């Protein structure tokens, strides 16, 4: 009884800390610790190289190019590079229509996103590198607002905000992540940038490695070199929701495996003696969050075995109801799919199942070597 109840409370505490306790601690700390990363408000228009990697994204690439050319940024200070990663569609033909403004480079054979980004870095000529996926459409002032943060010398990486259209589970979870990221930015440094839109000083860029999440790795490299990474809430882009749940699940697993690989390669950043604040945020946001599925399994089993006690019986029942709502929503029960009552449990289950699958792949040595852009 004592062992089971201890496991139950430990697991419950782990889940609560990951999703409620950590954000609450961030909120309290940001109210106490002065924000040394606040936007100085000074104009800063350093020349920028904007890299757009693409693999068979002809369906949206023309829209992306049009969106990029309409950005409020001096034309003479904006270098645009589209890098094709072995595309077999009409990517080349689309980009070459804009050859006066856009440089086009291609990998003849598909080598992955890291190789495409590295080619972009080799060809880029300016001191600020902006990475932007083809799937995100930026507001007119997004690039200008993003780049302005580099007026602060100790800032080495800046993340924009990617807003998911609609009220899907992905969109709700995305807003929660943005809330956390903005608190981390006020406290010290974010632990991960928006993979679809962020910038880094070229002097801090290191060659990307296939199988490691580029946006996460950029932040880790930045902090390791003595700089910090922050958010810029006014640098906004929008993306459509992933079309199919199975595609979103596959994207999550792929991202998680790449994230785990990057983190354990840079495990020194979890050393609280060397990186006190960053180790706290990195461990809380990533490591504890990645342990949640195991906490949930232990919580379900321990409360099931303790159902003779009214409190544990209630706790087990609440879990059963929550999981049932998520499962029925996954199986397209209409009123649940269209309601927050089904969207939140469904996405919560999706995320934590993806973490379990990612752990299984990572521990077996399976790595995600090829980039597969999500269909939105």
Quick overview of this protein structure:
The chain is 52% helix and 15% strand. The chain is α/β, with parallel strands linked by helices. Helix 1 runs antiparallel to helix 9, helix 8 packs across helix 12 (340-363) and helix 10 crosses helix 12.
Summary keywords:
376 residues, alpha/beta, 8-stranded mixed sheet, 12 helices, 8 strands, globular
Layout: helices, strands, pairs:
Elements: H1 2-32, E1 48-54, H2 58-69, E2 78-85, H3 91-96, E3 102-107, H4 113-123, E4 128-132, E5 137-138, H5 142-148, E6 155-164, H6 169-187, E7 197-201, H7 214-224, E8 228-239, H8 245-265, H9 276-305, H10 310-330, H11 334-337, H12 340-363
Parallel strand pairs: 1-2, 1-4, 2-3, 6-8
Antiparallel strand pairs: 4-7, 5-8, 6-7
How would you describe this protein?
- This protein has 376 residues and is of the alpha/beta class.
- Helix content is 52%, strand content 15%.
- The protein has helices at 2-32, 58-69, 91-96, 113-123, 142-148, 169-187, 214-224, 245-265, 276-305, 310-330, 334-337, 340-363, and strands at 48-54, 78-85, 102-107, 128-132, 137-138, 155-164, 197-201, 228-239.
- Strands 3-2-1-4-7-6-8-5 form an eight-stranded mixed sheet.
- Helix 2 (58-69) links the parallel strand 1 and strand 2 (78-85).
- The longest helix is centred in the N-terminal third of the chain and has 31 residues, at 2-32.
Question: What is the radius of gyration?
Answer: 22 Å
Number of strands: 8
Content of β-strand: 5-15%
Structural class comes to: alpha/beta
Distance between the termini: 49 Å
Shape: globular
Main sheet attributes: strand count, strand direction, barrel closure: 8 strands, mixed
Helix content: 40-55%
Mean pLDDT: 89
């Amino acid at each position: 009884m004592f062992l089971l109840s201890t496991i139950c409370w430990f697991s419950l505490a782990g889940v609560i800390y990951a999703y409620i306790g950590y954000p609450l601690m961030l909120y309290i700390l940001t109210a106490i610790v002065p924000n040394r990363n606040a936007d100085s408000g000074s104009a800063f228009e350093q020349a920028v190289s904007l890299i757009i990697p693409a693999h068979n994204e002809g369906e949206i690439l023309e829209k992306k190019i049009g969106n990029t050319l309409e950005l409020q940024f001096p034309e003479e200070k904006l270098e645009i590079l589209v890098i094709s990663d072995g595309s077999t569609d009409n990517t080349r033909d689309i980009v070459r229509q804009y050859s006066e403004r856009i440089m086009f480079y291609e990998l003849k054979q598909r080598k992955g996103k890291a190789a495409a980004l590295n080619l972009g870095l080799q060809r880029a000529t300016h001191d600020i590198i902006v990475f932007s996926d083809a799937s995100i459409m930026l507001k007119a002032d997004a690039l200008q607002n993003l780049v302005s943060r580099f007026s602060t010398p100790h800032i080495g990486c800046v993340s924009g905000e990617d807003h998911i259209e609609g009220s899907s589970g992905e969109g709700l979870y995305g807003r929660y992540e943005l809330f956390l990221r903005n608190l981390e930015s006020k406290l010290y440094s974010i632990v991960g940038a928006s993979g679809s839109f962020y910038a880094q000083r070229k002097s801090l860029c290191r060659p990307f490695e296939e199988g490691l999440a580029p946006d996460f790795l950029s932040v880790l490299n930045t902090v390791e070199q003595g700089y910090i990474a922050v958010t810029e809430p006014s640098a906004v882009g929008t993306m459509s929701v992933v079309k199919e749940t199975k595609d979103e699940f596959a994207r999550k697993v792929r991202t998680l495996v790449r994230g785990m690989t990057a983190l354990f390669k840079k495990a020194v950043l979890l050393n609280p003696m060397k990186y006190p604040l960053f180790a706290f945020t990195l461990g809380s946001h990533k490591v504890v969050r990645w342990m949640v599925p195991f906490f949930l399994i232990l919580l379900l089993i321990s409360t099931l075995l303790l159902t003779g006690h009214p409190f544990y019986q209630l706790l087990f029942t609440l879990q059963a109801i929550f999981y049932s709502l998520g499962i029925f929503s996954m199986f397209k029960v209409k009123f649940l799919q269209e309601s927050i009552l089904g969207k939140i449990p469904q996405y919560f289950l999706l995320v934590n199942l993806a973490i379990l699958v990612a752990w299984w792949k990572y521990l077996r040595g399976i790595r995600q070597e090829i980039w597969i852009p999500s269909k939105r």
